[in-house]
Amino acid sequence: MSKDNKRRDSKGRILRTGEQQRQDGSYLYTYKGKDGKNHYVYSRKLEPTDKLPAGARDCKSLREKEKEILKSLNEEVAYHGGDVTVLGLTQRYVSVKSNNVRHNTLAGYKTVLNLLEKEAFGSLRIDKVKQSDTKLWLQKLQTEDKKSFSAIASIRGVLRPAFRMAVVDDLIRKNPFDWELKEVIYNDSKSGAVISQRQERLFLDFVKNDKHYCQYYEGMYILFKTGMRVSEFCGLTLSDLDMKERKIHIDKQLQRTRDGKYIIERPKTKNGERDLPMTEGVYQCFKELIHKRKKIKVESMIDGISGFLIFDKNNMPCLALHWEHYFKDALGKYNRTYKEELPPITPYTCRHTYCTNRVRDGVSPKTMQYLMGHSDIRTTLQYYTHYEYEDVEKEIRELEEKMKKAR
Questions:
Q1: Of 67, 60, 56, 59, nearest in space to 16 by CA
Q2: Which domain holds residue 288?
Q3: Where residue 223 sits, what CATH number does that domain have?
Q4: Would you say residue 383 has pLDDT above 60?
Q5: Are 296 and 147 part of one and the same domain?
Q6: CA triplet 35, 36, 40: central angle to 5 degrees?
Q7: Are residues 303 and 352 in the same domain?
Q8: Quick one: pLDDT at residue 309?
Q9: Is residue 375 part of a domain?
Q10: Which residues, in sequence order, are CB contacts of 331 under 8 Å at separation 6+?
């Protein structure tokens, strides 16, 4: 026993409660199981970095095993012991869902969990949470913490199904998050920006004729004239372009995780896989991109896919973030050059503008749903069409003229 009265192993390391070193040098951990009885686990090493004795088979360290045991006990006791907190419930929901979601969805889960760890709401027992509690908490996030409507909608988008799971598991009778968000939280989000056809033409003409930004003209033109998601555009490879039939095949997105890993994701919706026709202008831009394509001896292979169209200075395929910067920088130079400034223009603006302009041209909603890759036509109608009085008036006048001619 050491002078500080703390138990230590043969290497002088302090042993935790339940741990002990046996005479043969191996380690033992004792714990109480759900049945109230003592249980025991053994290992030849205390920490994962310990060297194994000669001839011993590799195994998990005692503390790795302890961590797994404690996690299992905490989950079971918390979930079945009638003392489930909002945070605990959400952690369980995330653990159930996390094996089959995209990386950006996982990042959203982590954001909600981090918030609940800091908020008093996260420590409330779920059987004590009332509907008024959920409303007041989300209102507090908006009014005091200044979170946007979209951020609050994302938070509720995790908590609502988590509480629904608790209802299914018979832990609570009603879901306190079952109410319409817009009835309680002020929607301060703005619909996607749409620019006029004149503004689009001014911007593209400027980019085309600028000595520096002309290198991005083809990509920007394609985004404006196809309505593709920018991540879909970044994911295009040579094999996705049928230049003979003038057709673009979309079946993936190129993205990068928070830790910098490049990954290939499936389309955002079940209707995301689709073929888009090339207009003459789009065809010429793809033809130019293929002609200018950087020649790299060993091209990047991402999830088994190569042949991407546009590369950055490190010879990696360009990402959505690159294009966001290209648009921002080009727009900044335009607005510094001309007295008449243009509004914000992003790859997302291209998508909104494309959809709105095609609807104004008379393209049917079902065709637009297909072109945009939406699984629900309500998304096409509600979020990607921006009709104004002039559009409505024009359509009514044209209908009136047709009726006069038919008489």
A1: 67
A2: 197-391
A3: 1.10.443.10
A4: no
A5: no
A6: 90
A7: yes
A8: 95
A9: yes
A10: 203, 342, 344, 345
